[in-house]
Task: structure prediction
Amino acid sequence: MIKNVIFDMGGVIVDVHLDRAIRNFKALGVGNAAELLDSYHHKGIFIDVENGSIDADEFCRMLCLQVGHDVPRAEIEHAWRSIIDPPAEYKLQYIAHLRLTRKVYLLTNNNPIIMDWACVPGFTSSGAALSDYFDRLYISCLMKTTKPGLRIYQMMIEDAGLIPSESLFIDDSSLNIQAAAQCGLQTLLVGNTADWRTDVDKILL
Result:
């Protein structure tokens, strides 16, 4: 029986719009944004802020150095946050219902600029914070490691006291899914923008 359900954020809970973020960062002067931003694993300072090597302030400072001019913090935040849309209400309702019978967790490669926005009231259409829908959040920038490295899964399993065989992990990256399976988790690969409710129900029944 599955007692725990672990969701990725981008591409699962929220839709990812990579082209939009690339376009916005290019407008700020990041000419190689298409090389640095990726749907699953960023590069350069973009991965550095997601694995906790640098914080949000340092990311903004280094971006300004790279483009050769000052960029207002609000514009950098807008460019980062444009990579996703707030979650669809039907997904939030499903997760809320799921929590009546199971523990629900979020495991995400993410940065403080996005998560500071997602975890305040008003992020969702219901006016709640994304964090209100989960028993616990596991965020790469705080854990100092990213998927698909095995360490982030092992840290989550230990911290939450999970039995991997009783835990379902849902992600839109095949590499992340493979790593989760290596750690003994049950897995479900879904596509960005997909309605995965029926697929999850089939596993949970």
Q: What stands out?
A: Residues 56-67 form the longest helix (12 residues).
